Amino acid sequence: MNAQLEMDHLEVLRVKLGVLRQEHRDLDDAIHAMETAGRSDQLSLRRLKKQKLMLKDQIARLEDILTPDIIA
């Protein structure tokens, strides 16, 4: 029973990881669009970049949880 709960928990984390990666790509696209438009608001651009970095940190934490430690 515990194994089933653990699998469900890991599956939820994998789904969340996928969602965070998609959000990260979307922010990257939005930042790129703002930079190429030439009329970007620097404050908004800075906020988007900060949000993108926070997502990157969350992604790294989830990847660490989902990747088993293998001693070589």
Q: What is the H/E order?
A: HH
Mean pLDDT: 89
Number of strands: 0
Task: Provide the gyration radius in Å.
Answer: 17 Å
Helix content: over 70%
What is the number of helices? 2
Largest pleated sheet: none
- Helix- and strand-based class? mainly alpha
Beta-strand content: under 5%
Distance between the termini: 31 Å
Ranges where pLDDT stays below 50 over 5 or more residues in a row are none
How would you describe the shape? elongated
Can you describe this structure?
This protein is an all-alpha fold and 72 residues long. The protein has one domain. The chain has helices at residues 2-37, 42-66. It is elongated. The two termini are 31 Å apart. The mean pLDDT is 89.
